[in-house]
Fold this sequence. Notes:
With 853 residues, chain B is of the alpha/beta class.
Amino acid sequence: MDGGLAHPRAVPSAPGMDGVEVPVPQEAELTCGTRIEPGKSYGFFTDTTLCIGCKACEVACKEWNALPADAVGLTGHSYDNTGALGANTWRHVAFVERLPGTPEARGTEMPPFQSNWLMMSDVCKHCDPAPCLEACPTGALFRTEFDTVVVQQDICNGCAYCVPACPFGVVEISTGDGKAHKCTLCYDRLKGGMEPACAKACPTDSIQFGVVEELVERAGRRVEALEAAGQERAYLYGAPGTPGATNGLERLNAFFLLTERPEVYGLPAAPARPAPRARPGILAGLAAVAGLAAAALVLGVGGGGGGRR
Amino acid sequence: MPQWDLARSDVVLVMGSNMAENHPIAFRFAMQAKARGATLIHADPRFTRTSAMCDLYAPIRAGTDIAFLGGIIRHLLENDLWWRDWAIPYTNIATVIEEGYHGPETGDGLFSGWNAEERRYSSETWQYEGQTVPSPLAEAWMETGGDFAERVSSLRERPPARDETLQHPNCVYQIMRRHYARYTPEMVERITGCPRGVFLKVCDALARNSGPERTGAICYAVGWNHHTTGAQVIRAGAIVQSLLGNVGRPGAGLLALRGHTSIQGSTDIATLYDLMPGYLPQPHALRPHKTLADYLEVETAPTGWWANFPKYAVSLLRAWYGGEASEANGWGYDWMPRTVGDHSQLPSTVAMRDGVIKGLFVMGQNPVVGGSNSRLVQQGLARLEWMVVRDIAETDTATFWRDGTLVRDGEMRPEEIGTEVFLMPASLSGEKAGSFTNTHRLVQWHDKVVEAPGDSRSEHWFVYHLGRRLKAMHADGGRPEDAAIRNLRWDYPEVDDQGEPDAEAILREINGYRVADGALVSSFQDLKDDGSTACGTWIYTGVFPEEGKNLSRSRVPDGPNGPGTHLGWGFAWPANRRTLGNRASADPAGKPWSERKALIRWDEGAGEWTGPDVPDFQKEKRPDYVPDWSSRPKGMDAHSGAEPFIMLADGRAAVFAPSGLKDGPLPAHYEPIESPAANPLHPGNPASPAAKRWEQRSNPVGDAPDPAFPHALTTFRLTEHHSGGTPTRIVPTTAELQPEMFAEIPTELGRELGVRDLDWVVVSTPRGSIEARALVTDRLRPFAAEGSARPVHQIGLPWHFGWAGYATGDVANLLTAVVGDPNTGMHENKALACGLRPGRLFRANPPRTEGPN
Amino acid sequence: MTKPMEEPWRGETYHGRSALKPAGFDWKVAAYILAQGVAGSAQVIAGAARAAGGADGDGLVRRARLLSVAGNLLGTAVLVGHLKTPKRWYNMLRIVRPQSPMSWGSWLLVVFGAASAATALGELLGGRFRWAWRLGEAAQAPASLAGAGMSVYTASLLSTTSNPLWSAAPVPLAAGFGAASMANAASALALLQRNAGEHESARRLETLAALAAGGEYAAMRAAERRWSEVGVEAPLREGGPKALFGPAAKGLGVALPVAAQALALVSGPGAPARDRLPPVASLGLLVGGFALRHALLRAGDDSAKRPGDYFRAAQGQPNRADR
């Protein structure tokens, strides 16, 4: 299908229906046309111009990953009663109402693929390099063979350092088990050749799963198609060289197509990889201590003690 | 049309539906159309998640759909934007109507034929000139005076009178021009509140995408149905599509989005009281239905496909009755129960309240949440002797006696309620085999994949074993009703230790078979009226054409480069046709209107209709066939080769409906029964005069605009919850997404009342009040309204909530009224008037709190 | 039509909801930073005293070594206590992560703990066993070096995050933490020396503490300027952090010591105040040191909850590590 909506789900015949002539394919090949192999980078391209805010991704995620309900309650923030990503919420659909115009006519017209009610399914960005992973002192956070970032629950000791490290407020320590939790990009499903639950559940292909390089290319074509259709505000967030992939973050393996400034969706315009700040800090600190040590020598802190021994 | 065919539309108008929220999978195809450059339009009282995806959003006050659609019809006619080449041959727009006809424009809102005393219409003056046309719906028979069968037989004598120059003052075209003359853009704005500029953009988008090369689709759901004018709203949409040539063509159609997984299937196989499977009319005690012969005589249309009616009716009887059924007792017809009136849900609710109905089965429904006037429903339940609730959880209905509104408000105490409630656990779809029939009539099989927990059982199991017990109870009785039950066929093989009946055996019976040897039949053309065939639902014939071949199991898609009809995926009734009326995708000569929009065509060499879809036409009927009227042709022989719609008596789309409707042959704008606005078109009859009303103490109904109820109210569903809420409010991961009842109110009203997000408000109608938290939003708005100095604020209430489960809140349907569409008995929960104030309500017994915290 | 990124940010946030998660570092972490700062800098001072040579410093070196072990043990205990799964503390030693100050800290803690323990062993057994004395002396240099690291790495730990407040001023923050650690250690040792009757040594340490406190003050002023520049200073201007950062950290940690020492100086030799006020100054410095760390942790959590601060700070300037 054209317009960047291609979902090569349909195959000429359903294999395995009439005797098993072909090897049973990976399910992901059927559901999203992607073969999942170790050594390649996988991620999400979330196209917010296609999101209908159905939250199927949230439910599919919680069901597959057996995450408990947070029961945030009614927030009054449009239809968002999820609030934010967290230990028990690995997909979060944001809702922003922006209906311009007079009371009678407000919201009646939209530029192509621009919504007066923005919806965006947020998720862990699986950054490259990943600040949470770089912060983790135990190695519980690791980069998988699929170039995704996962917390090993049997290693994490809940030091919580990944929490402030994350530039997107994704990782959180569970008050239940005292470990850090976040999206695994369905590591278990990837191992089984299956598309992540959220992407598979998305009815409009707003969430697309695939090899990151291919997704970036597809997303670029989508931006061009939108521009051609008159939606000139579309841009990518988190793809290499775009907002979100800034200040040492080479790319976000889960990246987005947005039509408003990132802050509107709760994303920083130019997030930074924290790690480079470590060295200048420690050097300055050591210099201060060294200076004071020298002062101690000059002051003769060793003296004046009377030498009782 | 198949939902997936929406991807081929050039314009999609979603109206009366929140498609993205409530039909997200079908909406996928609308999104594909959009990606291909189609224009998406949403017309709705609320800016919803559907509006957010559209290019154009047309705000209309709830209950003004016909004014909006009528305005489109006028715009198309007056600006000559309709597709004449298609509509003149394929619709009855050129047909001449009886001289006595007059429309509501001259009758202050009344059509000709109004009987003020009985508050109903006679349709005699709506007929084709000199001919009586039977309804294409289930009830062919109408009260017309005289011998109905004789009157309609005139259709076999000559074709209906037509004036293809459209000059005849009583041809449908001229009638429609007069009828819709006042539906100008200015009037549309005055009634609906939609700015005329926006309205004209909608007209333009529809007109622009009509013609040989382009098609458009309209998607609707219960936002159209749930009005006292519901059937007429849908008619108005059908007229628009008929004028634009959007019937039977790729990417064209009027798509009814059904609310539940298999609600289409349950209509096909007859949950409605007045229908038998396959849209055959239920015998009626007060109609000429005494014997099978009588019934067949008056219910069989002389012309068109319904002339085959006796074959389907007799085959159905043969499937139902064994034992002593014979030609002499009408193959069991004499044992069949007769209806005596309106037994639909609304009057049944009133009958429970009045103590007429003593027992109730509630299966897959939650009427205290979903039924109109929930207080009346609960009062009715409280007067039952017994109630069986079969569901996957303890529903609000099952606990009305403990946690319900009557108890909460101190009206009754649980110990005063005598209803004996039986709660039976039901299995979910993955826990049983069976089929779903979706919106586009596609039957898809599903297998049982896991055991149901505990004592949960399938509906098949429950009904089958209930039937067996009933048969055992009536095995020896001497009364006629004993024989009626005793002689039913009820012999499905059991497939497991629990006694689950074989679902495929049921499907084989639905498909039909030869009585003599049990061989399955492959087409309804093989069904006979001589008792030699049995068939549970004639339209499904072919789903199981031979042993071991259940086509609803088939899962072979066309692939990305295929024709896109996916004939190998499931089975679409009838005869696996994907697009009904697809003869209209070719011109009268049998050639596709354009290659871009080709579907079927006449193949002169082969002498048959061909194409990627199964033709909805006699396969070998030549396009130039003309009936020989001297031979008094019957059935399909009375249709020419260029009359595309086989189910209609004259083969042409009925933009003017001479029969089948109880409230007029053309849609006219009536306000809801309870409306905050006056009707500028006919102030004497602002609301539908023929609407069904059941006023009583428990169901007070307001009339004229009432200052106590100055706002427009509509109820709606959310994508996060399933209708009555049972499957989603009990599941924490869905309950948390919309955790409690709320009221959507416009920013302007919030400002006026000092109400902010999450503040409590009380919403009231003549039936009572509920409380909810406010969501103050720009998505709703005030509308200028006729007869109201102040703007009318549109209020929206989700109706999913109740007291069971984790996501709870007041029942929106405590506010709605038991009033109904005269044709369908459908309630009017989508448009009424309400009052709103900040604050909370006093509760005698505050609700139990239950939740994950 | 322009791309949204070409338009200025007008203060939009997502419903005012935070875009970051607070770290949730509580008083235990503040106590850890203080304890390890004191322990680490005590070894730096011990090293300096040893380097200055002479048996005059033996008492100071002894107390510094023992103080560092005590501080280290206390610090480690509260650190493990702050873990949400404390029984898995040892997983900190599974890997070495050069990008993670938390990982450095874990290993520093090991090296420093071992070296400190060795120096303490030298103190405790050096009189009886020659090898112990040698071990203690040999461990002094590594203990001092690791101690310097212990004194400052916690600042780096805070600034190597996405927290708007912590990350805005990595250089001044680390300089400030280093100076604060030295001031706290010198103060603690001064108290011990006074307790042991070594008033002259204590006075020198108090002078060192004053110098360090001055450095800390200057560094934190620089940090504050930087926070104002970036626009993330608000959390330190309101609520609990304001009280901690202002009256507690600056009042007890800077103003009180300065006043006490000044009074002691002007009171003239022999006056009771001359020996009684300096311990007040030292205690004030220690309490102020804790308040400073706790203020920064609390304000950091508040900062994370302020999406406007984060979005303002993350407006696409070049990598802030350079500043």
